[in-house]
């Protein structure tokens, strides 16, 4: 597999220099005939970040992603992609956005290569430069190699496994250089090697300055690949921000390295600060005392402190806390007010459902195949 196209990134289409967010939503809401799928989502996807979108089944990840891409019409709210309003400027923005989403797009009786050639022929980045058929073929070959599908390129799409379909969708998303790549559960149907490849491709995109928004159920993958996370629960953002901040916010404990651990514990306990000796150092409970006060107490008592750092919690634990009890803890970018209102509004919005575009309805049909054929495709001008 190759490292991918070495083409320069396309020019900034919209929004101009200094746009700090590759995607931004405010008050984004979607109601499907009485079901509140997404409720007041304020999403910030920083440029150049790899943002993992997490949430239990039915928490609104796919609906949010589909609204970002202009595939589902929001009931309310604002969306900006690459600094431009969506859906208003969607035609200008989409060529710079690669996406892997559920949507029927590939022809079952054409091969993977032929399908990709159809997509390539509709990419303004390729056709706008007057590239020859041979050059289009080269772009397709590179994309197929990049996702590990070169060996099966001439097989009919209908004979592809779910994982191969997934790879072809990814190839179409990466046919040309993108500024933003949106991947909805890209490891769905992939074996462990395929999952590793997705990890590598995301790392490559990140190294190239591309912003990536990826939804996933695989917390270990998100922890390994993402710089930022957004956690959805019942259609509401319950945490959003840098991954490191989220992991540190998950545990109200300080780990203190000191040569005199036993004495440190005694000093802290004398001050009614819960502390215990562990193999990693002295673990101090910060539930009632800020870390600065802990250090002050220790230093004041003459205990030498070599290092003090917030204990990190695994993403799995943080995720469970945020999504099982959405009112517990203090998530970064806390939205306790919004969480309290989750599902409070069960009244369908005026025009709900009926206001959806035909594209939306097509997407809904695609959604029903989630566990079936798994037809997915990349976006770009080829849609
Ligand atoms: N086309 C639709 N018509 C009616 N309800 C829908 C439609 N699409 C999604 N929903 C509902 O909206 C809610 C959010 O669904 P969504 O698919 O966005 O969640 P998700 O977080 O992507 O779930 P999963 O992890 O299972 O993929 C769910 O209650 C779902 O049943």
TrEMBL record:
UniProt xrefs under InterPro entries: AAA+_ATPase, ABC_transporter-like_ATP-bd, ABC_transporter-like_CS, P-loop_NTPase
Keywords: ATP-binding, Nucleotide-binding, Transport
Biased composition (Basic and acidic residues): 334-346
Region (Disordered) location: 330-383
Top-level lineage group: Bacteria
Residue span, ABC transporter domain: 23-259
Molecular functions (GO terms): ATP binding; ATP hydrolysis activity
Pfam families listed in its UniProt record: ABC_tran (PF00005)
Family: Belongs to the ABC transporter superfamily.
PANTHER family in alphabetical order: ABC TRANSPORTER, ATP-BINDING PROTEIN (PTHR43335)
Name of the protein this chain belongs to: ABC-2 type transport system ATP-binding protein
Organism: Promicromonospora sukumoe
């Amino acid at each position: 597999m190759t490292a991918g196209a070495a083409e320069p990134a396309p020019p900034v289409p919209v929004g101009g220099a200094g746009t700090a967010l590759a995607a931004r939503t405010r008050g984004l809401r979607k109601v499907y005939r009485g079901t509140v799928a997404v409720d007041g989502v304020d999403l910030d996807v920083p440029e150049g970040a790899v943002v993992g979108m997490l949430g239990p089944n039915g928490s609104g990840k796919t609906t949010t992603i589909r609204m970002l891409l202009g595939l589902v019409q929001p009931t309310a709210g604002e969306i900006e992609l690459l600094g431009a309003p969506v859906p208003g400027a969607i035609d200008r923005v989409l060529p710079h956005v690669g996406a892997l989403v559920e949507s029927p797009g590939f022809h079952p009786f054409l091969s993977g290569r032929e399908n990709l050639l159809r997509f390539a022929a509709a990419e303004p980045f390729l056709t706008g430069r007057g590239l020859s058929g041979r050059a289009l073929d080269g772009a397709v070959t590179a994309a197929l190699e990049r996702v590990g599908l070169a060996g099966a390129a001439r097989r009919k799409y209908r004979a592809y496994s779910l994982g191969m379909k997934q790879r072809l969708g990814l190839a179409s998303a990466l046919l040309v250089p993108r500024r933003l790549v949106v991947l909805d559960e890209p490891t769905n149907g992939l074996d462990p090697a395929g999952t590793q490849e997705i990890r590598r491709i995301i790392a490559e995109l990140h190294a190239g300055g591309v912003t990536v928004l990826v939804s996933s159920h695989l917390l270990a993958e998100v922890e390994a690949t993402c710089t930022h996370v957004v956690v959805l629960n019942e259609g509401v953002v319950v945490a959003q921000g840098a991954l490191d901040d989220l992991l540190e916010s998950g545990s109200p404990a300080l780990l203190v390295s000191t040569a005199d651990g036993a004495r440190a514990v005694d000093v802290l306990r004398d001050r009614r600060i819960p502390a215990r000796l562990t193999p990693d150092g002295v673990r101090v409970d910060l539930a009632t005392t800020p870390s600065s006060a802990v250090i002050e107490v220790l230093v004041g008592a003459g205990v030498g402190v070599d290092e003090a750092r917030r204990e990190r919690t695994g993403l799995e634990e943080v995720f469970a806390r945020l999504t099982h009890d959405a009112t517990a803890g203090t998530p970064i970018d806390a939205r306790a007010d919004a969480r309290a209102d989750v599902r409070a509004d069960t009244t369908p919005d005026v025009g709900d459902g009926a206001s959806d575009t035909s594209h939306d309805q097509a997407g809904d049909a695609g959604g029903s195949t989630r566990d079936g054929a798994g037809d997915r495709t990349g976006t770009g001008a080829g849609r």
